[in-house]
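Support reply, case 0932

Customer input (verbatim):
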Amino acid sequence: MSPPPSSGPPGFSRRTLLAASAAGLAFLATGCTSSAADEREKVTSEQADELTAQVAVQETLVSAFVTAGAADPALAGEVADLAAQADEQLTRLRAAAPGSSRASSSSASGDGAPPAPATRAWLRAQVAAAATSHATACVDQSGARAALLGSIAAGLAGQDGRLA
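Our regenerated output:
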């Protein structure tokens, strides 16, 4: 019987070829994508303006929590964690918005919260409006700014559900 045919030169196995190919491909992919990520993080003037507008939306929401708390003290205690989340989201938005400074919060829309028991529904409408605004603005942003607005919109949608 004849011996099996030789599979190739010794020391150069399929594993070696596969490992070298994978390493080369990873190196090539990393080198090719680094500049694209930098381009995505550049902020256009329109994106900066929209992000600044979203800061104002979040300031209005934070103010709405304060206004609702003044109108219905029982509700204030119940939604204190939601108010703290909205304030934390505002801090993150201000940090992400180019040129955004720590301004005083604008007043909530309308003449203020109605007295209890209608306060909860009014606050829920404020939360839903802010969530919609952030979700809509998210589409025109890119990179981390889009992720931040999307995350805040999702968090506010959860708050809307808790207020239901």
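We compared this against your earlier run and they match. Two observations from our side: The chain is about 75% helix and 0% strand. The helical segments are 14-41, 45-71, 73-78, 80-96, 119-138, 143-163. Please reopen the case if you see a mismatch on your end.
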